[in-house]
Amino acid sequence: MTPDLADRFSLTGKVALVTGASGSLGARFAETLAGAGASVVLAARRTQAMEPLRERLAATGAMVVALDVTDPKAVTNAFDAAEATLGPVDILINNSGIAEPGAALDQSDADWARIFAVNLDGARRMAVEAARRMVARGQGGAVVNVASILGLRQGAGVSAYATTKAALIQMTQHHALEWARHGIRVNALAPGYIQTDLNRDYFAGPHGQAMIKRIPQRRLGQPQDLDGPLLLLASDAGRFMTGSVLVADGGHLTSPL
After folding, report:
1. pLDDT for the residue numbered 257
2. Could you tell me the CATH number of the domain that includes residue 81?
3. Where is the Ketoreductase domain (predicted)?
4. Structural domain of residue 171, as residue ranges?
5. Number of structural domains, the chain?
6. For residue 102, how many other CB atoms are within 10 A of its CB?
C-alpha cells in the first residue's frame, strides 16, 4: 500500500460512534475503527457488556456510553458525552438492530412497531442528530448505516426486519442527497450472512447448511470480512462515495431464492 493510500484509510484524529457495540458485529466494527486510528465511542444499552472491549481499546481513548436509540434524550446525551470526553463525532456507525423472525400472519402490530422503532426510527434519529452537529461544525463527516442483503431481496419469516432494512437503504440515499453539500457522506453496508456466536448452532444444523449451499462462495462471512468495506465507507478512501450500498455477501444476491 502506498503512503498516500494508507493515509486515506487512516482514521487518526477521528472520533467514531458505534451503536450496538455490545454485540459481536458492533464490537468488531469498533475494533476495526480503533485499529485504523479512531477514538471510538462504544454505545449500547448494556454498558457493562462493553467494558471488556473498552479495556482492550483503552490506549485508543475508547469510552462507553449508555444508549437506547428509541429514546431521543438518550441519543442527545450520548453525543453530548462523546463530545465532552473525546470531541465531536466525525463518523457514525448505525449498527443497532433487532431481528424477531416469524411469519407475517403471526406478527402483531406491537412486534412490527418494535422492530421499526430500533432498526429504522432509531437509525434515523442517530443519523439526524449526527448530521445536525456536523453541519453546525462545518467539518463534514461520514454516516454508515448497517443494512442487510435482506433489504435487497426476500426471505421467509423476516418480513418486518427485511422491510426496515429496505427502508434504511432508501433513507441512506435520501440523506446522502440532502447532506452532500455539507460534506457529509452517507452510505449503507449490506452484509450477507455473517457467522456469530448467536447463529453458530443454526448454521451447523441442516437448515443452516442448506442455506450455505445457496451462497456462491459456499461459506458464511466472518466478521473480519466486513473490515475492508467498513473502512472504505468510513474513511477518506471512500471520499467520492455517498448514497452507495456496499454489499458483502459472498455473492448471495446473485443466487436464486
Report:
1. 67
2. 3.40.50.720
3. 14-226
4. 5-247
5. 1
6. 15
- Compute the distance between CA of residue 97 and CA of residue 223 in angstroms, rounded to an integer: 16
101 in a structural domain: yes
Mind listing the pLDDT tens digit for each residue in 183-204?
A: 999 999 999 999 987 788 888 8
77: its cell numbers: 446525551
The mean pLDDT of 13-18, rounded to a whole number, is 98
Q: Which three cell numbers, joined as nine digits, stand for 110?
A: 406491537
User: To 10 degrees, what angle do helices 47-56 and 24-35 make?
Assistant: 30
DSSP E strands in the chain: the ranges are 15-19, 39-44, 63-66, 91-94, 141-146, 184-191, 245-248
Handedness of CA 69, 74, 76, 79 (dihedral sign): negative
Place of cell 444508549: 67
Determine the Cα–Cα distance for residues 93 and 29; give it in Å rounded to an integer. 8
Residue that is written with C-alpha cell 466494527 in the block = 29
Sign of CA dihedral 20, 119, 100, 201: negative
Contact (CB, 8 A) for 14 and 38: yes
Residues 245, 187 contacting (CB under 8 angstroms): yes
